[in-house]
Amino acid sequence: MRTALRQEVAYASTPPALRARVTPAVNGEGAARRPRPHGERFRNWLSRPFRRGALSGIASSAIAAGIAFFVMAPGLANPLLDDLLTAHVRSLMPGHLIDVASTDRHTVKPWFAGHADVSPMVADFDGQGYRLIGGRTDYFEHQRAAVVVYQRGSHVINVFSWAGDQRGLPKNTSRNGYHLAFWTTGNLAYCAVSDTAWDELIGGALFIGSGVYNIGADDHHTKLTLAMIEQLRERSIGVRARAVEVPPLEDPKRVMAGAQSYAALCVGSHLAPGVTKSDIRPGLYPHPPNLAQEDTKDTQRAFWIIKHGIKMTSMRMFPIQFLNGANSV
């Protein structure tokens, strides 16, 4: 049938005049509707100077941010800190704090044999307000760590101990309101974790009485310990120096006697004009000030220090005869 129709139906072509009017209109509508290629639109948009500059700034910022992230990320993430803080918080949940409950260190310490991979130091500081309440084990650093638990008022202090390695320990820090204090004894690493005040955690009997702090002059104080000692020293001297009556310092005989005493007893520690080093000075800690370069304006403070000395330093006290009859304070 289709063949018959094609053979019998006459083909009527479009008149030239009609084709001339319709073809331009159809082509124009198609061009209007056809979207430009995406790449062409993007190139046109990007060709504008302002937008090109904006994209350049965004790219530079993204590269800088990426570099900063990779540089800073190791300091922001410390698995050991995370493990310690998680273990401490978990221990505060009911039934998780203690595996062996006892206030007797001779009961707590033997319990760790067979339960932990280390034998921690267990001390009794009940007389100083740190009550031993027991111990438990926690698992981190791929080992069974020992935890000795103390109570200070309403605060729990977990003292973690584990076998250390060559990586060293983090610095003392605070996270989410909890303080973490680190130290080592032999190859054992320790960390005390609590929400109690820093001075109670580090300066308290738990830290001092245990003997874990190295008092050797070749192992310098931590920044926090040094700040506490300096504050104690300055406040102590300041309170006591107020009552000092400084004798007349312009007396030539007194000046001569003081110079002779300084040359005989003090130059090795505090140097002098023309003396820039000594054999004893490098081994002193805390490092004594160079008095040849300092202007001593507070004579009351200086007089009190010279007379009484300062504990746990190289600053000795001087007998009263060196003070030439000055008043006793």
Q: Can you characterise this structure?
A:
By secondary structure, this protein is an alpha+beta fold. The chain has three domains: 17-77, no CATH class; 79-213, Protein Transport Mog1p, Chain A; 227-323. The protein has twelve helices and seven strands. It has helices spanning 2-8, 16-33, 38-46, 49-76, 79-91, 105-111, 198-202, 205-208, 223-241, 252-265, 267-270, 299-308, and strands spanning 100-101, 131-140, 143-152, 155-163, 173-175, 178-185, 188-194. The protein has a seven-stranded antiparallel beta sheet with strand order 1-2-3-4-7-6-5, with helices on both faces. Helix 9 packs across helix 12 (299-308). The radius of gyration is 40 Å and the shape is flat. The protein starts with a helix and ends in a 21-residue tail after the last helix. 14% of the residues are buried. Mean pLDDT is 77; it is low at 62-76 and 325-329.
What is the strand and helix layout of this fold?
Blueprint: H1 2-8, H2 16-33, H3 38-46, H4 49-76, H5 79-91, E1 100-101, H6 105-111, E2 131-140, E3 143-152, E4 155-163, E5 173-175, E6 178-185, E7 188-194, H7 198-202, H8 205-208, H9 223-241, H10 252-265, H11 267-270, H12 299-308
Antiparallel strand pairs: 1-2, 2-3, 3-4, 4-7, 5-6, 6-7
Helix pairs in contact: 9-12
Jot down its keywords:
Protein Transport Mog1p, Chain A, flat, 3 domains, alpha+beta, 329 residues
Major sheet: arrangement of strands: 1-2-3-4-7-6-5
Give the CATH topology of the largest domain. Protein Transport Mog1p, Chain A
Q: Into which percentage range does the β-strand content fall? A: 5-15%
Unreliable stretches covering 5 or more consecutive residues:
62-76, 325-329
Major sheet size, sense and barrel closure = 7 strands, antiparallel
Return the structural class.
Answer: alpha+beta
CATH architecture of the largest domain: 3-Layer(aba) Sandwich
Number of domains: 3
Shape: flat
The run of helices and strands is: HHHHHEHEEEEEEHHHHHH
Number of helices: 12
Radius of gyration: 40 Å
Q: State the name of the first-level CATH class of the largest domain.
A: Alpha Beta
